[in-house]
């Protein structure tokens, strides 16, 4: 019963009544905020100036991400840190990759461990650099049981 009353109320066209209110006062043609902004270029974002931060060295970057991966507690944190580390215009140091692989094992995330090597392959400048990373990380890969995508899917490589 109540549902049918609500349906009828919802279907009914709204009735507008003319209100006998006080006459409206015309708004100024240009508000003061618009007038103040007239001299600036149009933008929907707030201007932020970041003059206080310093450039991070490669050693500081490496130490920061080693610490980040050492404190990872779940797969989301691991993947977020990997995305942030690979977003920079550099290839992370092998020590960062080692920390990331150990974190992937700690949170039991095998697919992400395989994807770490795919990330390295896409970040390096040439195949020789990728081979050097593989050679340096070979003992850890064998210890953790991480198989490369090239070995899992040889026809795709």
From TrEMBL:
Keywords, A to Z, come to:
Heme, Iron, Membrane, Metal-binding, Mitochondrion, Mitochondrion inner membrane, Transit peptide
Show the CDD domains listed in the entry: Cyt_c_Oxidase_Va
Membrane topology (UniProt): Peripheral membrane protein
Entry's Pfam families? COX5A
Q: In what pathway does it function?
A: Energy metabolism; oxidative phosphorylation
Asked if the Swiss-Prot or TrEMBL record annotates the protein with the keyword RNA-binding, the reply is no
Q: What's the superkingdom here?
A: Eukaryota
Q: Where in the cell is it found?
A: Mitochondrion inner membrane
Q: Does the keyword Protein transport apply?
A: no
InterPro entries on file: Cyt_c_oxidase_su5A/6, Cyt_c_oxidase_su5A/6_sf
Its family remark reads: Belongs to the cytochrome c oxidase subunit 5A family.
Described purpose of this protein according to its UniProt entry: Component of the cytochrome c oxidase, the last enzyme in the mitochondrial electron transport chain which drives oxidative phosphorylation. The respiratory chain contains 3 multisubunit complexes succinate dehydrogenase (complex II, CII), ubiquinol-cytochrome c oxidoreductase (cytochrome b-c1 complex, complex III, CIII) and cytochrome c oxidase (complex IV, CIV), that cooperate to transfer electrons derived from NADH and succinate to molecular oxygen, creating an electrochemical gradient over the inner membrane that drives transmembrane transport and the ATP synthase.
Assembly behavior: Component of the cytochrome c oxidase (complex IV, CIV), a multisubunit enzyme composed of a catalytic core of 3 subunits and several supernumerary subunits.
Under what name is this protein listed?
Answer: Cytochrome c oxidase subunit 6, mitochondrial
Q: Could you tell me which species this protein originates from?
A: Phyllosticta citribraziliensis
